[in-house]
Amino acid sequence: MDGNEHEHSHLQEHPSQHHGSYGHAGRRKLPPVAIYAIVAFVCLIAGYFAHAAFSPATCPANNSTDACAAPTTTPVGLTAAQLAKLKADMSEYLTTVIAINGAPEGVTVEVKNFTKEGDLYKASYDIMQSGQVAQSGSGYVTMDGTRLFLGSYMDLTQKLEMPTPKPAVNINVSGRPYRGSENGTVIIVEFSDFQCPYCKVAAANLDTVLSNYNASVKYYLINFPLSMHVNAEKASEAFECAMLQGQDKGWAMFDTLFAKGAGDGTGLAVADLKAYAKNLSLDTAKFDKCLDDNQTAAKIAADLSYGEGIGVTGTPTFYVNGKEAVGGAPMQSAVEALLKK
C-alpha cells in the first residue's frame, strides 16, 4: 500500500509500515485511505483466531456457567444451493468492501469454495486484478452463512452499496514538461510533494511504469508541497529552477530529490539542493540565484491553487487519463488496466 497523510493529521509518519495505504492526505480533510484493505484479510492466522472465537469454550466437567456451557445441538449446515448463493453473495460483498476502501476499478474478490471445519465453513477466495489472481486468502463463516471473520467480524446480511466512481477530470498540462512518449495514449498527471515519504514510494511505481510502458505513457508533474513539510516548498522550487536549464536537468533533479530526500526533511535543505545542482552539472550561479530569489515560487503557488481547485486533498494524487488514482500502486494498476484492454 502507499500511505496517506493529512496536513493537520495527528498520526505519526511511519512510511515503512504503511506500504499498503494511500498517500499523503492533503490540505483540507483526511479521506479514508486503504487501497487494498482486503489484503489485511489475507492471513490464515486470522482464520485461526476466528475459529477460536466461534468455537465453544472447553470447560471443566464440573463447570455449569453459561459462559462455558457447551452447545447442546450441532449447527446445521447449508445446502449445496445455499452455498452456491452464499459464494456469489460473499464475492459481491467483499468486492464492495474493497471498493469502498479505495481499490481501483476492476479489482474484484471471487470466493472459490467452502470447506467444512468443525462448526464453521472455511471460505477460500482470490483477489482478481486485470483477470489475474493478485492475492489469495481465506476466512471463516458461520454455519448459517450470516457472519464472516476476516480480521474482524462482518455481517454478511448487511446490504452494501458500491461507491459512485468519481468523474474524469480534464487537467490542463499545456506547456508542461513530460516524461515518456510524445504520442503516449495514457496520460499520467501527478500532484506531488518531494518531502512526502509516500511520494517517494510512488516514485518507484512510476519508474516501473515508465520502464515497462515508456512508448505508451506520458507523465506530468504538478507541484503540491504541503505546508506541514518545511523543506517541500524549496524542493519544488529547486525542481523548477533545474527545469529552466533544460528538461534533462529538471528530471535529473526530480530523481535526485526523491532518491536523497526523506520524510523528515533530511536531504532537502537549501544547501543540499545547491549541492545536487552542482553534482548534476547545472549552471550553479543561475540555479543558486533562482533558488535564493524565489524565482519559481509563484509557479509553485499556482500549482497548489490549481490542485486545490480541482479537489486534490493529498499526495501523491495521480490522474490517469483524467481518472483519480491516489497512490503509486493504484496509478500503476490503472495504467496497466488501460493498456491491457
For the terminal residues, how far apart are their CA atoms?
Answer: 24 Å
Major β-sheet profile = 5 strands, antiparallel
Biggest sheet: strands side by side, in what order?
2-3-4-5-6
- Strand fraction band? 15-25%
Instruction: Return residue spans where pLDDT drops below 50 for at least 5 consecutive residues.
Output: 6-72
Rg, please? 25 Å
Overall tally of domains: 2
**What's the overall average pLDDT, rounded?**
82
The assigned CATH architecture of the largest domain is 3-Layer(aba) Sandwich
Structure notes:
With 341 residues, the chain is of the alpha+beta class. The protein has 2 domains: 15-59 and 74-155, no CATH class; 179-339, Glutaredoxin (3-Layer(aba) Sandwich), CATH 3.40.30.10. 35% of the residues lie in helices and 19% in strands. The chain has helices at residues 44-54, 80-100, 197-213, 232-243, 247-260, 270-279, 284-292, 297-309, 328-339, and strands spanning 24-25, 108-117, 120-129, 132-142, 147-149, 153-155, 179-180, 186-192, 217-223, 314-315, 317-320, 323-326. The strands form 3 sheets. A 5-stranded antiparallel sheet has the order 2-3-4-5-6. A hairpin with a 2-residue loop joins strand 3 (120-129) and strand 4 (132-142). The longest helix has 21 residues, at 80-100. The relative contact order is 0.16.
